[in-house]
Design goal:
single chain, Rossmann fold, 2 helices, 28% strand
Length: 121
């Protein structure tokens, strides 16, 4: 499948899914888009689906806020792990956080034509 992952239309016919991967996204989009994407994820999730996501721990470390947004949206955190050095050497990648959340409800209807995010990197 080829499509624009930032627009909900790309997911028509592919959702709801049991596993949703949002890896390499949250560190490359504005904070408001991270929040909007999390709020939209219930449209992608089958009952008891797992969402795996990643975000760097570099400044600003948005991972605590992201975890709160998932909880506020209705997801249940099932795991999280930091990888790499908390204070990396200059030029090295900062530590990463890998999170896992479960969607314990029925999926929401997919709203077509919605833009989730715009990459800034």
């Amino acid at each position: 499948m080829t499509g624009d992952a930032s627009v909900t239309d790309a997911y028509a016919g592919a959702v709801p899914a049991d596993l949703v991967l949002v890896c390499g996204v949250f560190g490359n989009i504005p904070e408001v888009d991270v929040h909007r994407t999390i709020d939209t994820l219930p449209q992608f999730c089958a009952p008891n689906a797992t969402v795996i996501w990643t975000r760097h721990r570099g400044s600003p470390d948005l991972t605590p806020t992201i975890r709160k947004w998932f909880a506020h949206t209705g997801f249940v955190e099932i795991g999280g792990e930091s990888t790499g050095a908390e204070a990396p050497k200059p030029g090295a990648f900062p530590a990463q956080f890998i999170g896992a959340h479960r969607w314990p409800r029925e999926p929401l209807a997919l709203e077509l034509g919605e833009r989730l995010f715009t990459f800034f990197r």
